[in-house]
Amino acid sequence: MFKRLDPFGNPNVGVYVKATSAHLFVPPGITEQNISDLEQALGFKSIPLTIGGSELVGSLVAANKNGAVVADFTTDREIAILEDAGLVTIRLEVSRLNAAGNNVLCNDHGAIVHPELTARAMKAVQDALDVPVERGAIAGLPTVGTAAVATNKGVLCHPLASEADLAFIKKCLHAPARIGTVNHGHGLVGAGIAANQHGVATGSRTTGIELGRIDEALGI
User: Fold this and answer.
1) Checking DSSP bridges between strand 177-179 and strand 104-106, what pairing results, if any?
2) Contact yes or no for 110/132 (Cβ under 8 A)
3) pTM
């Protein structure tokens, strides 16, 4: 299922929302209609969450069905919410690369991380998500979590991703990868989309043609 919405008036759904194959986390303060649309599209009852008090849950959390990696300033109470949802949760080390959702692209089979992430941070990602981890970039962008969005069925990537990028992503995440855009031509599809095997939530500016490419890439 597809739903188009603008949380807090912003079409970048992936900045605010984190979906896995088993969970849906949303920030408090979005409208009841937004929550209904997200639950219908992504197939789960939403769990309210902030990270360090911030609504930017999608940018600050990387997660799959096994666990979550979160920004270093995540509070104990916020970690308890993730753990109560059954996720092994680990804070990233204090650094400029602590926005886990922006710097980690993952599904239930693997993870790709910012090329400058330290060995210690990579170990945290591996321990939390319980998947193999590789460093990499997509379309020359080190913030792989904004340059692509992944489910267990497929990966949608920045339109400038190369064939080598797509092959690398397929090898790491064990899912086919294709290029596309969101929100009427924007390449940072990870910021614009929240997705899992059930459906996609994207900004209201996303065109029908873009939805078709998203459908093909993510296997919805």
Assistant:
1) unpaired
2) yes
3) 0.96
Amino acid 219: pLDDT: 86
Alpha-carbon separation of residue 60 from 9, 12, 177, 210, 212 (angstroms): 19, 14, 23, 26, 28
- Cα separation, 129 vs 200, whole angstroms: 22
Q: Indicate the fold that domain 2-218 takes in CATH.
A: L-arginine/glycine Amidinotransferase; Chain A (3.75.10)
Q: Are 92 and 52 in contact (CB under 8 A)?
A: no
Give the pLDDT band (50/70/90) at residue 220.
confident
The CA distance from 122 to 124, in Å, is 5
- As a whole number of angstroms, the distance between CA 128 and CA 115 comes to 19
- Where are the domains positioned within the chain? 2-218
Phi, psi of 79 (to 5 degrees): -65, -35
Q: How far is CA 93 from the centre of its chain?
A: 20
